[in-house]
């Protein structure tokens, strides 16, 4: 999470959406940086709204706008799958090394996913407890040039985005049946991505 005081902008970092590269590039311009611990780096909207927004307001930072990146649900899950399949996760309870992407997505879309398929839920990250979208500016990961143009204009800086935390390549084949299962179980994920700025 990054807070830009002068520009009145708060960047909320949903995991697996290119946030590491963005934060590395934008950190020098930020007034506040929460990066090292995952639970701080990936502060969700509802937690920001409940705690940090009040604190920042007491510091004189009011009328802050929030920004977040959403990735297509299948690609987002694919990034998690590849991340958990890397050698560093060998033997871990959430390793996906010995399973297919098909199995991973099918399990994620089940009623009670196994530990290795629990990776969070993007709508929960960007919505209030009442279910309302609380992010001012949503961008699709797949339309990164639009996000970069927005940030360059808002922050008045040139942004050259390096690649960071790139997961190893893997077979990302998904059957129509499993895709339909995911769309039926989590339609909000697809709707939110579709409604993000394009």
From TrEMBL:
<dbReference type="InterPro" id="IPR027417">
    <property type="entry name" value="P-loop_NTPase"/>
</dbReference>
<protein>
    <submittedName>
        <fullName>Sulfotransferase family 2 domain-containing protein</fullName>
    </submittedName>
</protein>
């Amino acid at each position: 999470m990054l807070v830009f005081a002068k520009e009145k902008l708060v960047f909320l970092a949903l995991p697996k959406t290119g946030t590491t590269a963005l934060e590395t590039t934008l950190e020098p311009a930020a007034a506040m940086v929460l990066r090292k611990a995952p639970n701080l780096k990936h502060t969700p909207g509802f937690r920001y709204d409940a705690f940090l927004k009040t604190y920042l307001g007491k510091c004189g930072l009011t009328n802050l706008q929030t920004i977040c990146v959403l990735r297509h649900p299948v690609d987002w899950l694919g990034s998690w799958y590849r991340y958990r399949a890397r050698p560093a996760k060998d033997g871990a309870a959430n390793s996906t090394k010995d399973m297919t992407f098909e199995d991973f997505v099918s399990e994620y879309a089940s009623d009670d996913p196994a530990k290795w398929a629990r990776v969070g839920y993007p709508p929960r990250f960007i919505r209030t407890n009442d279910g309302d979208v609380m992010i001012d500016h949503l961008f699709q990961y797949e339309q990164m040039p639009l996000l970069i143009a927005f940030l360059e204009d808002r922050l008045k800086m040139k942004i050259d985005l390096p690649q960071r935390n790139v997961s190893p390549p893997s077979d990302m084949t998904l059957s129509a049946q499993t895709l339909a299962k995911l769309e039926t179980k989590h339609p909000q994920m697809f709707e939110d991505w579709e409604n993000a700025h394009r």
